[in-house]
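Data follows
____________
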Amino acid sequence: MDLQGELIEHPHPVYERLRDSAPVCRITGTDGTPAWLVTRYDDVRAALADPRLSLDKSHAAEGGYRGLSLPPALDANLLNMDPPDHTRIRRLVSRAFTPRRTEQLRTPIRATADRLLDALGPAGTADLVAAYAAPLPIVVICDLLGVPEDRRLDFRTWTDALIAPDPSRPRAAKEAVMAMLGFFTELMAHKRSRPGDDLLSDLIAVRDGGGSDGDGAAGGSDRLSEDELMSLAFLILFAGYENTVQLIGNAIHTLLEHPEELERLRKDPSALPAAVEELARYEGPAPLAIRRFPTEDITIAGVTVPAGETVLLSLSSANRDPARFPRPDLLDLDRDTSGHLALGHGIHYCLGAPLARAETEIALAALLERYPVLEPASPAPRWRPSLRARGLTELPVRYDTARSPH
């Protein structure tokens, strides 16, 4: 079943149909190879926590879907790992993304949001993806890692090439990967010679001097191999940008389509934290969880999936399943959103979820506070041609600091 076009432009009616008639169905994956798509909430949630569904590509059947093709120096990341390596590496980096650390970042995040809005001026039209939703998370995650300001635009270009490859430029994604590899190699060397007060310098210190084994092997209890270090930096930067730019952009777009809810949040900013959860459920940043490979034959919703075949878990569909969320196609800011899967579930739950939530909440608060007038403008927003990310290529708006007299 080839559903890619429909799932990009109009995903929710397709998912509704699949939940009713084929909750586990064989489809053509994003790279043209077959995969199994799972769409019901209970099945998706259970599969996300099932240890028999491995992220390690060594469990993939010959010729099956493997996802992004990355060199070894970028591929040894958490999205390709199972325990115990996953547990070891996640523990090393999780301290940077605790709720307490996120609270400390709120003031600089708000300062960045205000600075971006200052650049827009008091009134006019703008693409809020290019001018706001994209640069905000880039600044935040690059500041966290210690990436120089003059390289941040390059990184956004490379990331976009990976999220939504341009069919007219078949080599663009590979060129972006190689450019990123060169960038991280250079950045690592710089941080080793001139460490700073940033997460990347801390991780290099762990790699070069921490732990109990003297050779820095991956098996050490508190050590990173060189490939793991490089891959971890890549993943933090890539995922820290990709998920958050989609979360912010989709939230703004959804509120523009629901002006009454937008005005409600403008009048009561205290409702924003709960609203961000509903906005994430309603139109989350990732249509699908990272691909998984059964280590043995498994049965999902009565369908047997052979070992090694690719399983794609639809977070978007699960979050619109009426069996879990009544009237799921209704944006309801008072809804009980507990258990939504927009940022995953289980041991692979999004490491940066607290930071992504805070950035989205602050981005919305600053935008709504600044502009009493915020309306869609032409041309109509367009969705990225991608199943890896659910996000907009652009979001044209008209904005004004002075409320319209009518």
Summary: Residues 211-220 have pLDDT under 50 and may be disordered. The two ends are 51 Å apart (CA to CA).
